[in-house]
Every structure is written in structure tokens, then in C-alpha cells.
Write a structure and sequence with these properties.
Elements (H helix, E strand, L loop, with lengths): L1 E7 L2 E12 L2 E12 L2 H4 L2 H18 L30 H22 L4 H13 L4 H7 L4 H13 L3 E5 L7 E5 L1 H22 L4 H22 L9
Antiparallel strand pairs: 1-2, 2-3, 4-5
Helix pairs in contact: 4-6, 5-6
Length: 237
């Protein structure tokens, strides 16, 4: 089971698709349609990466290189249902977190477009505002800006006079990016909007739930970092 996009009449739609063997061939069946992708969501780096993984997996299955269903858990995995027949995407934690992030970003994306800035460009600005001087690669590492789009985003912001690059005195190959005065003023003009969105979102939780959420997110971030550093992505090697 995996995600894919399908273009119909020039519009892109997100679908959950299942591969099944039938008479020695792979047949695909649409399990559910998750709706139309807007331009900002379609370009989201996390979704793009997920779809790329799905395409590679589908190609592997079609070529006969996969011997197990994609939802089969590696030996020793615990905590989640291993039976593919009981797998539910709606209760799959990574999907729920990704989807929550996308839904949260939909409203702000419209807001930023109304003020003449793309979501990706805003992410670069707010990262530089928070961390100060960063290289392009550090922006990718610290934030949610895709590597493929970082150069274009920096070029747009530099042209607008919001970002400037400075050669590193210790390493001539390194270019440190930072906000100009105009860039800092631009970001600070929209920070109250971001804080208001956070306050409105967290208002759905009681104060003790907010504190618990913060602790849970810290624990998940730590565990995910541990898992990411292993070959199988499970932290078992």
C-alpha cells in the first residue's frame, strides 16, 4: 500500500493505492482518494520524498524484487501491528504527523501568498531570523526547505533585498547567508501572525495537555533521530 499522485484534466490528486499479484502480474487498485493537491502542497518536500519512495517501491514489486508486502515489519519489530491486513493509514503515526503538518500549513500558505511571498521563501527567512548566519546546506539541515529549491529561494530573497550572502573569512568556499535590515523587519512584521496561529491551535488543548504534548514531541524527536542514524531506520542495528 502506498501513495501516488494522478493528474486528471491538468489537476493533481493524491491516492492510496494497493499492489496485488494477479495471474503473475502486478495489478493496482485505488483504496481511497485523499483529494486534490494545491500548488504549495504538491511542492512540499516531505510529500515529494514520500511519493518518490512509493514509486521506487512499486517499481521494485513490479520487477519481482520484493518478496514481502511493503507493510511487513522487519524481524524483531514491536509495538505496531505486523499483519498487513490490519494496517490502517489513518492510525499510522508518520502519516498522521505529515498530514497534520500539511493541514496546518495550508492556511498560512494562503496568507503569505496574499503578501507576495512563497511558503518556501518564508521558511528561509524565519530560519535566518532564528539562527542568524547559515549556509545553504545548514538551511536544509535545520529546516523544511528542500535541497533542490534552496538556491532559487535564496536568489529570490536576495533580489528582493531581504537576504545577503557574505564570504566566510576562514573558508572562502563557504557563503554565510543572513537577513538584511529589510529582511529582519519583514519577518518581525509577521511574527505576531505566527504566534496567533500557534495560540489558536494550542487552545484545542488544556494547559496540562499542552505541557504533555511538549514532552511527547521532545521524546519522539529524540527517538526519530536515533532511528535515522541506523541502516534499517528502526534503530535495531
Amino acid at each position: 500500500m502506498f501513495l501516488r499522485t494522478k493528474t486528471v484534466s491538468g489537476k493533481r490528486y493524491l491516492q492510496i493505492v494497493e499492489n496485488r499479484w494477479d495471474a503473475g502480474k502486478v495489478r493496482q487498485r485505488v483504496i481511497a482518494s485523499l483529494g486534490r493537491l494545491g500548488p504549495d502542497l504538491a511542492a512540499d518536500p516531505k510529500l515529494t520524498g514520500l511519493l518518490a519512495s512509493a514509486r521506487r517501491l512499486a517499481a521494485s514489486v513490479a520487477a519481482g524484487n520484493a518478496t514481502e508486502a511493503p507493510s511487513a515489519a522487519p524481524e524483531g519489530a514491536t509495538g505496531w501491528a505486523r499483519d498487513r491486513e490490519t494496517f490502517s493509514l489513518d492510525s499510522y503515526l508518520p502519516y498522521r504527523i505529515e498530514r497534520l503538518s500539511q493541514v496546518i500549513g495550508e492556511g498560512s500558505a494562503r496568507f503569505y501568498r496574499q503578501h507576495g511571498i512563497a511558503t518556501q521563501d518564508w521558511r528561509v527567512l524565519v530560519l535566518l531570523h532564528s539562527y542568524g548566519r547559515l549556509t545553504a546546506s545548514e538551511l536544509v539541515d535545520r529546516g523544511t526547505v528542500p535541497k533542490a529549491g534552496i538556491s532559487r529561494a535564496v536568489a529570490r530573497l536576495t533580489e528582493r533585498g531581504l537576504v545577503q550572502g557574505q564570504a566566510d573569512t576562514a573558508d572562502a568556499r563557504r557563503v554565510n547567508l543572513c537577513l538584511t535590515r529589510e529582511g529582519r523587519d519583514f519577518v518581525e512584521r509577521f511574527l505576531p501572525y505566527n504566534l496567533a496561529r500557534q495560540e489558536r491551535l494550542l487552545a484545542a488543548l488544556a494547559p496540562e495537555e499542552q505541557a504533555q504534548l511538549d514532552r511527547i514531541l521532545c521524546k519522539l524527536q529524540s527517538r526519530a533521530a536515533e532511528m535515522a542514524g541506523t541502516r534499517d531506520g528502526l534503530g535495531s542495528d
